[in-house]
Amino acid sequence: MKDNFEVVFERELFPQGTAASMDALDEVERLEKMLSVFRFDSKIQYINSTAHEEPVAVEPELFDLMTLCLDFAELTGGAVDITSGPLWKIWGFAKREGRVPSDVEIADTLKNVDYRSVQLDSGEHTVTFTKSGIELNFGCVGKGFAVDAGAKKLREQGVDRFRFQGGLSSILAEGADWTFGIAHPLRPGQRLTELTLNNAAVATSGSDKQFFRHKGHRYSHIIDPRTGRPAEGVLSATVIAPTGTLAELLSTAFFVLGPDWAEKYCAEHSDVSALFVLPARKGNLCDVRRIGIDCDRPEQHEELNFC
Q1: In sequence order, which residues have a C-beta less than 8 Å from that of residue 136 and are 6 or more positions away?
Q2: For 7-39, how does the pLDDT look when each residue is reduced to its tens digit (9 = 90+)?
Q3: CA–CA separation, 28 and 261 (whole Å)
Q4: At what angle do helices 60-75 and 244-257 cross, to 10 degrees?
Q5: SS3 7
Q6: Which residue, among 249, 215, 251, has the nearest Cα to 235 in the 3D structure?
Q7: N or C: which end of the chain has fewer CB within 10 A?
Q8: Across the chain, what does the average pLDDT equal?
Q9: Facing residues of 241 across strands?
Q10: pTM of the shown model
Q11: Ordered strands of the 178-183 beta sheet
Q12: pLDDT at 68
């Protein structure tokens, strides 16, 4: 996992930066061993195989992450649900072999998608599933969480001017203006726009990398846990927020729930802004909608290209 992460800093300012960066990347690897559903020996795999039989004790950081994710599930009415991994599997995205499941298969799978079946005991720091078949999957937040944890390691060693990036979707920038691009969701290899970020994080949920077509229909890998089907109506949702964890959770929520819901959320949270790429209503290839992105704000600047 840490091979997909990178740290950028000024070596002249921070001679300790290389060692600090290695510690930060080691932290990413540690979290992968905890959170990855692709590792048979991860803590999440142990929880998934055991928590329906008995309470499982979890580390404080994992307990706090679960609490946050369950709170988000409640906030979004189940649009962001860490138990929705089985849906991702039946649509073939786990093996990158897209397929359209039957209505019966979707309905059967939805029986095991319910964040309310995950019970947390704050006194004992344990997690219990109220029924079998429940699985946790932190794909909607894992990179952002890892970026935040790695950034903490950098700060602890005095590196306070850096960019910490998890793949192409999660970035945290601190101490300087850092410019990054947002990929065009319909034109591979092309940037739609650039943003300049400082003391904030950004995450993008989009369908440009993982999707398939079937009978002329384009299916995204981002599943709406409420319906069991790929979310529609948004091509990509980019969110700027104070932390990588929050940015990634919100980008998933915004992708599923759409710009109107995002507009209401951002109106109540002045430190969050968003940029949507939407299917075109008229002659353009796509339309862009900005929410709270103000070129006069010092922590962000955006130069938009035409779709």
Answers
A1: 37, 44, 47, 48, 66, 82, 83, 85, 118
A2: 999 999 999 999 999 999 999 999 999 999 989
A3: 32
A4: 30
A5: strand
A6: 251
A7: C
A8: 90
A9: 201
A10: 0.91
A11: 178-183, 191-197, 300-304
A12: 98
pLDDT above 50 for 305: no
Q: Is the pLDDT of residue 89 over 60?
A: yes
State the Cα–Cα distance between residues 255 and 236, nearest whole angstrom.
Answer: 7
Residue located via tokens 């996992």: 1
- The angle formed by the CA atoms of residues 3, 27 and 128, to the nearest 5 degrees, is 110
Q: CA 11, CA 267: separation in Å to the nearest integer?
A: 39
* Nearest-angstrom CA–CA distance, 167 and 5: 6
- Residue type at 234? V
Two structure tokens written together for 109: 């799978």
Q: Which amino acid is at 48?
A: N
Query: What single DSSP character describes residue 285?
Result: S
CB atoms within 10 A of CB 160: 15
CA atoms within 13 A on the CB side of 135: 16
Q: Domains in the chain and their CATH numbers?
A: 43-129 (1.10.3980.10), 168-304 (3.10.520.10)
C-alpha dist (Å) from residue 133 to 44, 78, 143, 150, 221: 14, 18, 25, 33, 21
Rounded to 10°, the helix 43-50/17-35 angle is 20
